[in-house]
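Dear colleague,

As promised, here are the two records you asked about, laid out in our usual form so they can be pasted straight into your sheet.

NAME FIELD: protein one
SEQUENCE, THEN STRUCTURE:
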Amino acid sequence: MRTLGLRLLALSTLSAATLSLTAVGASALTPSPDRGPICVEPGAAAAAKGGREADHREITSAEQERIAARTRALLARKSTPSPSAVAAAGVTVPVYVHVMAAKNGAGDVTDAQIAQQVQVLNTTFAGGESASAADTGFSFTLAETDRFYNDTWHRDGSSTKYRKATRKGGANALNIWLVDFNYLGIATFPWDYARNPGIDGIRVQYSSLPGGTATNYNLGETATHEAGHWFGLYHTFQGGCTATNDEVSDTPAQDSPTNGCPEGRDSCALPGLDPIHNYMDYSFDSCYDQFSAGQSTRTAQMWAAYRA
């Protein structure tokens, strides 16, 4: 199975697989106090997000079918709230933010940026950026922020180790690790939580937070996109130009990911233009403005099946 794929961020040509790993001392587990307005920029700004790699582990069409069957079975027998009840009542998700800064302070985003990022999540999942957007019923509250000053972790090295050492909360808690790597983000899926709960959450390029330096991707929408995966949404181009696609009927089939904001793009012969404004495409942050009603239903279903 291929390792976790990522949305490529043109910060450098260095591959994540070649990052130099150093030993991590036990002292790295001790959070440091907030260091104020330090926000050291990465060596190069992001120029494109592209559609070169997935930002989650590969899901084949066969596995996609198995996941769908498993989800149906779980929803049929679990006594958790129904998807309609989840959507109607609303759910507040606790958010744990882990700032993985370098020893010299690089990547040490401010508390204000973190608060703004949580607000972006609240706005986007509430349908607040477009009259066409769905209100998913999910909201977010910052439960805790901790900070680590470790060069290896800052580069996303030893990621399995550091996530297991720092993750907090249960299946319903969104953990966000802010790192500096060649990509914009990585997410885990809800159906993987039971077999590997210690790594559940999303990793996000720290410069993509509101006010960051990732050109075209500094409005905080990367975290929205990755959280969409964490809730169980596929890319709008999942599986390419097929009837199954992302398993959401109101996101038109899409053959390939978007780059930028090309109005009228139509990469697939099936009905509908590419949903370039959907958070689950690969558009610029300024182009994003919605989850669909079908995606809202799916997030509630996945929550009821795997996270409630």
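NAME FIELD: protein two
SEQUENCE, THEN STRUCTURE:
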Amino acid sequence: MSKVEASEVAAAKASRAAMSRLMAVAGHDLKQPLHVAMLSVARAVEDGIPAAAADRLGIALDAMKRLNSELNDIARLSQMNGALRPNRRIVRVAEVLSRVERDWRFYAEARGIELDVSLSDFLVETDPDMLHTILRNFVGNSFKYSVSGGHIRVSCRVLRDRLSVEVEDDGCGIAESRLERIFEAFERGDQGAQCDGLGLGLTIVRQTADLLNHSVSVQSVENEGSIFSIELPRLLSDAGRLEPAGAICRASTSQ
């Protein structure tokens, strides 16, 4: 390796280290004023205010909780250099999907978008918090590219010994030329300039999925919508058998 190449490699490593430190500090320091705001809103609701105002504050509090989770994601992303380890265990998918539905329920109502989360009793082996992070970001990404009157569906599909959890929307879709880069940092698709955020959500998805050794993918058609999916290793059901491949989970619906 030449001196120029060695210098470039060293500069790149230093840049990544500096970015990791920045994300760690941001993920920590920004949480303090956020916690104060969350506590103030919660106490205002408890003290008693008109129903309409309580509803609006409830939506604000819900958004703050999501922001808090996203700051946690950024802090974790800064540790994804070997220090972070998944805590895998047997998980009932319905438990994680219920958390995702609670994360976005009020926001969906405020935006006029139908959120359909189909619960499933299938068992998988994963880190439930990391899986929650992935699915929450999938749904959040779908909201960015959906409009009032749109639909977002979260469902499961059996693929032999694996389970595919899929987030489907009927939003603006993604150009084929950008699909390969959609999981890169600061990549936000063709409509990115019209959306809030830095485009870190899907980068967090990719790096978290890599830690778990789970496969994530996207299918999309411009002006028709997108399907983001993650494949999980599936365990035997409570009855001691594997469900047939191709089955689609529609056990419960939350809107």
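A couple of things worth noting about protein two: The two ends are 58 Å apart (CA to CA). Confidence is low (pLDDT under 50) at residues 186-198, 250-255.

Best,
R.
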